[in-house]
From TrEMBL:
<keyword id="KW-0547">Nucleotide-binding</keyword>
<keyword id="KW-1133">Transmembrane helix</keyword>
<dbReference type="Pfam" id="PF04548">
    <property type="entry name" value="AIG1"/>
</dbReference>
<feature type="domain" description="AIG1-type G">
    <location>
        <begin position="29"/>
        <end position="215"/>
    </location>
</feature>
<feature type="transmembrane region" description="Helical">
    <location>
        <begin position="346"/>
        <end position="365"/>
    </location>
</feature>
<keyword id="KW-0812">Transmembrane</keyword>
<dbReference type="GO" id="GO:0005525">
    <property type="term" value="F:GTP binding"/>
</dbReference>
<keyword id="KW-0472">Membrane</keyword>
<dbReference type="InterPro" id="IPR006703">
    <property type="entry name" value="G_AIG1"/>
</dbReference>
<dbReference type="InterPro" id="IPR045058">
    <property type="entry name" value="GIMA/IAN/Toc"/>
</dbReference>
<keyword id="KW-0342">GTP-binding</keyword>
<feature type="region of interest" description="Disordered">
    <location>
        <begin position="201"/>
        <end position="239"/>
    </location>
</feature>
<protein>
    <submittedName>
        <fullName>GTPase IMAP family member 8-like</fullName>
    </submittedName>
</protein>
Length: 372
């Protein structure tokens, strides 16, 4: 990625360019943003969501959860500034518990947005505390985004990079494709580690069972050889003593067989319990997926009903407006006609008054001439 450099003491892991590393049976990818700069975390969150959801100026009082979709659905949880000294230990634990509640059944990747210019030893200690509270696999689930250029000289930041197995990217010229690739690689690596750990536990249990059975067989074999040697040394003993030893040997063999059957039964029960647990988890996951699908259908149904209601409302308003315009048009025509009628009446009245005035003037003028 542009902006990422390799040093002798900080070497990022080799990356692939695939965008389809998320396991197909996973319904969503849950991301948790942590860091020492709210503005940087808001920018990264908006970059992932491809819209301005978080304000870089307003820092929230609690964790905020937003859903989105990039190839697969994902949940993004942005946290307040947990690394600052003005946040008490009690407030930090409350925020962490709230974050864990929002990301149930658990986050997949912790995206650590760290400002190299302002990342101190105190920030490192508080970040380690937060990740330890969130789980013993938190560092294995973390991917670091670094802003700034002097991260090579920052010992606290280099320690965090080492704890996260050198999974980091530079925010300068960061591209969505590469960020998605690294997120999915981190999740895939975590799944592989968890699967290997589970397989190692099963192998260890099987190895312990095999060792116990081998020890029991060895003890039984040693006892059998000891009894055979004693039988050889006491060939001249009476038949009663010989029969007693024979009976004792048979009882020991029965006891060994019983112990062997008991161990086999315990092993079988553990296998059945593991299978039942896996089956129950699969049923729970399928039930959750069915519930999610039902919720989507209900939301779509509600949206369709709302769209229909909105369409009917707009049509009704259109009809009302049309009727109102018709009424106003009719009223305007009537006013126009009334205006012309009154204008015609006024003109006729003016003409009559003018004629009468002229007649009166003419009469007065005529009388005046007669007097003269």
């Amino acid at each position: 990625m542009a902006g990422t450099s390799v040093t002798d003491d900080v070497k990022p892991r080799q990356r692939r360019s695939s965008l389809d590393l998320l396991p197909p049976n996973m319904s969503e990818l849950r991301l948790v943003l942590l860091g020492n700069n709210w503005s940087e975390r808001s920018s990264v969150a908006n970059f992932i969501l491809e819209e301005n959801v978080f304000s870089s100026q307003r820092e929230p009082d609690n964790c905020e959860k937003v859903r989105g979709k990039l190839k697969k659905e994902f949940v993004l949880i942005n946290t307040p500034n947990l690394l600052h000294s003005n946040t008490s230990d009690m407030q930090m634990r409350e925020h962490v518990e709230h974050c864990a509640c929002l990301s149930k059944p658990g986050p997949h990747v912790f995206l650590l947005v760290l400002d190299s210019e302002d990342f101190t030893e105190e920030h490192r200690l508080r970040l380690c505390t937060v990740l330890e509270i969130l789980g013993d696999q938190s560092f294995a689930r973390s991917l670091i985004l670094i802003s700034g250029k002097n991260y090579r000289s920052q010992i606290p930041l280099k320690d965090i990079i080492r704890k996260c197995s050198y999974r980091y990217l530079m925010m300068e010229n960061l591209e969505m494709e590469e960020l998605l690739t690294r997120l999915r690689q981190t999740q895939t690596q975590v799944e592989i580690i968890m699967k290997e750990k589970e397989e190692e536990n099963l192998r260890r249990e099987h190895k312990d069972m095999t060792r116990k059975i081998t020890e029991l067989k060895g003890e039984n074999e040693r006892e059998r050889k000891l009894r055979a040697n004693e039988q050889t040394e006491k060939d001249k003993c009476i038949n009663k003593e010989r029969e007693e030893r024979k009976r004792q040997r048979e009882e020991d063999e029965k006891r060994w067989k019983k112990q062997k059957e008991t161990l086999r039964e315990e092993c079988r029960k553990k296998v059945e319990t593991s299978e039942k647990k896996a089956h129950l988890e699969r049923e729970q996951r399928e039930a959750a997926e069915r519930k999610l699908e039902q919720c989507r259908k209900e939301i779509k149904k509600s949206q369709d009903a709302w769209d229909k209601e909105k369409k009917e409302l707009w049509e009704q308003r259109h009809q009302d407006l049309k009727q109102h315009l018709e009424v106003e048009k009719t009223r305007s025509i009537k006013l126009h006609e009334e205006f012309y009628r009154r204008r015609k009446t006024w003109i006729s009245s003016c003409f009559i008054l003018t004629s009468l005035s002229l007649s009166l003037l003419f009469y007065i003028f005529h009388l005046r001439e007669q007097k003269l």
